[in-house]
Amino acid sequence: MKIFLRYSWIILVYVGSFLQLNAQTITEIRSVSFTVSDLKEALKFYTEVLPFQKDTVFILKGGNIQHLFNIQDTSLKVEVARLHLGEGQIELMEFHSVNNPGRKIPADSRSNDLWFQHIAIVVSDMSKAYQILVENNVTHVSTSPQTLPGYLPAAAGISAFYFRDPDGHNLELIHFPAGKGNPKWQNAGDKLFLGIDHTAIGIESTRSSLQFYRDLLGLNIAGNSINYGTEQKHLNQVFGARLNITGLKVASGIGIEFLDYIAPSGGRPYPSDTKPTDLWYWQTTLKVSGINELYQKLKKDGYSMLSDSIVEIGTLVEGAHLGFLARDTDGHFLFFVEK
């Protein structure tokens, strides 16, 4: 009987720990937002050069917004434009703060720096999409579109091209051949630009990032590839690039992709003093069930919290009422929201 009671206690402790860990659930990777220097100019690029559709433009201000972004400035005002492409959504944010002027993206930023983040825009015809960018004198990162070779079985046949918007934010065009990527991208009809497949982030360690995104947040691994070779070098413009790439997803929304540079070394860390007014600031919005439990878990485990509490977020995210901002293991900002 003593042995039975002892093991019953162990089982209860284990189940209790499991329920506590899974008290929160990520239900959707909703959107990606980033800071721009001039909202009107950014809108021209994203709606005229790229075919994003403008949904709405609104202004955020007040005490809750100051607490959300941890900017203690009563003059703070954030102009936000919500855009969509297919089912994918982004927000462009222009911050106005007397006490917190934004900093530009470093001119020498490289794809293996840990503040690197981009969105991958799916196209049905890479040559036609690339020609539109050329005609609009878009800044290249890649030398030209690159088709990944057959010796990379998980990525073979996928073509991609890196470029930048006027503020220097990295963007990617990507084309999936039949049998690769989400099957929905094969149903393009007559559309050229289809939507957003994922947001990619630079990371230091796949193992550490999986402990955060998979084990703590509950995202699922969707795929993995080790990419290298001439095409990868010309795509990223990082000499000798060898990457461990891991894709993650949940039931709804876009994916998150890890870019773990096995080589070369020397990628710089995400600046610890980053503020949302800085132009390299991106935030990925994740809808969560159990936001209070998640906030307490992240705080208890010592993760960096940008928001000092859970706050009412106004109109920032459709279908959500509460939210907070935190940083992952490499410093990327995540915006957790709940109805």
User: What pattern of helices and strands is seen along the backbone?
Assistant: HEHEHEEEHEEEEEHEHEEEHEEE
Main beta sheet strand tally, sense and closure: 9 strands, mixed
Text of the CATH class of the largest domain: Alpha Beta
Task: State the domain count.
Answer: 2
Helix content: 10-25%
* Counted beta strands: 17
Could you say what the CATH topology of the largest domain is called?
2,3-Dihydroxybiphenyl 1,2-Dioxygenase, domain 1
Which outline best applies? globular
Poorly predicted spans: 1-21
Class derived from helix and strand content: alpha+beta
Instruction: Figure out the total of helices.
Output: 7
CATH architecture of the largest domain: Roll
Overall pLDDT, averaged? 92
CATH superfamily of the largest domain: 2,3-Dihydroxybiphenyl 1,2-Dioxygenase, domain 1
Written account of the structure:
This protein starts with a helix and ends with a strand. 22% of the residues lie in helices and 35% in strands. The chain has 339 residues and is α+β, with helices and mostly antiparallel strands. Residues 1-21 have low confidence and may be disordered. The chain is globular, with a radius of gyration of 21 Å. The longest helix has 20 residues, at 2-21.
